[in-house]
Specification:
Molybdopterin biosynthesis moea protein, domain 2; 6-stranded mixed β-sheet; 8 helices; 31 strands
Length: 411
C-alpha cells in the first residue's frame, strides 16, 4: 500500500493553476485572486463622524458642561459649508464629513440642544468619535494578496475601494459520474439488489460548496460502450473528471480499462481507511479521479485528493482543511497499517476540544458523516486510541489553513 502523503504529493504535482480572468464582484465568491489588489484611495476617503452628535473643537468641551453655538446641521452625504471655530459646533450625522476646524464629535446623548445652542454634558478629547481618512485602508496599500480566496467579506472590501472586476483564476469545470448496475437515482423505486445513488448528489453538493462548475454525467451501469461515451464526454467538456465506483479489481470494474484507452491511470491501494482503492490519471490530458464506490470512502478520497487538487487549480495557497487538536472521549480500535479517518462530533469543553464517534464507522454508513463535525485522524502505526488521548481533527466547516508544502513535506 502507498502512503497517504505520497499519493497527495503525486496528485498535487500533476495539476496546474488555471488561467486568470476578470469577473464582476457579484460572480467572484469563492474564487482566488490571481494578483494583488492595491487600494486606489483611502478608506474611508475622508475623515467622518462615527456618531450622531456635534462636531466641536475638543478644547471647548473641557471642562464640561459647556455651551456652544450651533452654526450648521450636516447630514451624511453632504459637506458642511461652515468652519468650526472656538465656541461653535455643527450638528452632524454618522458618516458625514468632519467640518473644517472640528477636532472631535460629542455624542448626541451627551448633549442638550436648546434653540441655536447646545450644552455639552460630557467633554471629549481630540479625535474622539472621528473616523480618520485611511483609518481602514491607506491608498497604495496591498489590500489582499494573490492567492486569497474570496469570501463575502472580501467582496465587501473590494466594492468599498471601487474594484468591481477583480482578476482571479477561473472556476474549474468538473464532470461527475456514478457507475454500477446496482445504482439507481433517488426518484427510481428500488428493485432487489439495487441501491439509491448517494455518491453523485453528495459530490455535486461538495463541488457546489467549493465554488466550482459541474457537469452531471448521471449514472452509467457496467456497460463498456456507455461508460466509454460518458467518460469521453466528461474529458472533452470539463477540466476534471470525477467518477465513483468501478476502480477496484473486480470483473465488472471497467473504468480503469476505458480510461487507459485514451489516457493514463494508476490504481493505488492507499494506506488509509476508508478509501483504500483510489485511481488517478488523465483522459486525453484531463485529470481523472476514480473514487471508490462506498459513500464514506468517496468523501474521504475527495477530501484528501480531489478537493486539494481543485483548490490548487483555482490558485489557492491553503489547500487542506484546518487541523485542531482534541481528545477522544472513548476507546477506539483502529488499523495500525493505515491512516484512519473517524467520523466524529466535536465540542469545546472549556479550552479543550472533545471528540466522540458520530455513529457507525463502516465505509457504507453515511449517517455518521452527516452527524459529524470533523474527521479524527489516527496515524499509521496506531492500533487503537484510548479515551483521553489526543487526536487531530480535520474540521469540515473551517477555512483551509494547510498548504501543499506543509502537507507533502511532512512525510
Amino acid at each position: 500500500m502507498r502512503r497517504l502523503v505520497d499519493v497527495q504529493r503525486e496528485v498535487l504535482g500533476s495539476v496546474q493553476q488555471l488561467e486568470s480572468i476578470s469577473v464582476p464582484v457579484a460572480r467572484a465568491l469563492g474564487l482566488v485572486l490571481a494578483e494583488d489588489v492595491v487600494a486606489p484611495h483611502d478608506v474611508p476617503p475622508f475623515a467622518n463622524s462615527a456618531m450622531d452628535g456635534y462636531a466641536v473643537q475638543a478644547k471647548d468641551t473641557q471642562p464640561a458642561p459647556a455651551d456652544l453655538k450651533v452654526i450648521e446641521d450636516v447630514a451624511a452625504g453632504h459637506v458642511a459649508a461652515c468652519v468650526v471655530t472656538s465656541g461653535t459646533a455643527v450638528k452632524i450625522m454618522t458618516g458625514a464629513p468632519m467640518p473644517a476646524g472640528a477636532t472631535a464629535v460629542v455624542r448626541v446623548e451627551d448633549c442638550d440642544e436648546e434653540g441655536d445652542s447646545v450644552r455639552i454634558l460630557d467633554g471629549v478629547l481630540d479625535g474622539e468619535n472621528v473616523r480618520a481618512a485611511g483609518g481602514d485602508l491607506a491608498a497604495g496599500s496591498v489590500v489582499f494578496g494573490a492567492g486569497t480566496r474570496l469570501t463575502p467579506h472580501h467582496l465587501g472590501v473590494l466594492t468599498s475601494i471601487g474594484v468591481f472586476e477583480p482578476t482571479v483564476h477561473r472556476r474549474p469545470v468538473v464532470a461527475v459520474l456514478s457507475t454500477g448496475d446496482e445504482v439507481v437515482s433517488a426518484d427510481t423505486p428500488l428493485q432487489p439488489g439495487q441501491i439509491h445513488d448517494s455518491n453523485r448528489p453528495q459530490l455535486l453538493a461538495l463541488l457546489d460548496e467549493l465554488g466550482v462548475e459541474t457537469i452531471d454525467l448521471g449514472i452509467v451501469g457496467d456497460d463498456a460502450a456507455a461508460l466509454r461515451a460518458a467518460i469521453a464526454r466528461g474529458a472533452a467538456e470539463a477540466d476534471v473528471l470525477l467518477t465513483s465506483g468501478g476502480v477496484s479489481m473486480g470483473e465488472y470494474d471497467l473504468v480503469k480499462g476505458i480510461v487507459s484507452e485514451t489516457g493514463d491511470v494508476q490504481i493505488w491501494r492507499v494506506a488509509i481507511k476508508p478509501a483504500k482503492p483510489f485511481a488517478f490519471g488523465n483522459v486525453g490530458g484531463t485529470p481523472f479521479f476514480g473514487l471508490p464506490g462506498n459513500p464514506v470512502s468517496v468523501v474521504v478520497a475527495f477530501e484528501q485528493f480531489a478537493r486539494p487538487a481543485l483548490l490548487k487549480m483555482m490558485g489557492a495557497k491553503a489547500l487542506f482543511r484546518a487541523r485542531q487538536p482534541a481528545v477522544l472521549d472513548v476507546d477506539v480500535q483502529t488499523d495500525p497499517e493505515k491512516t484512519v479517518f473517524l467520523r466524529v462530533a466535536a465540542e469545546l469543553s472549556g479550552d479543550i476540544w472533545v471528540a466522540r464517534p458520530a455513529g457507525g464507522q463502516a465505509s457504507n454508513q453515511l449517517t455518521a458523516l452527516a452527524n459529524a463535525d470533523a474527521f479524527a485522524v489516527v496515524p499509521v502505526g496506531t492500533a487503537g486510541v484510548a479515551a483521553g488521548s489526543r487526536v487531530d481533527l480535520e474540521m469540515f466547516r473551517w477555512p483551509e489553513t494547510r498548504t501543499e508544502e506543509e502537507v507533502t513535506n511532512a512525510g
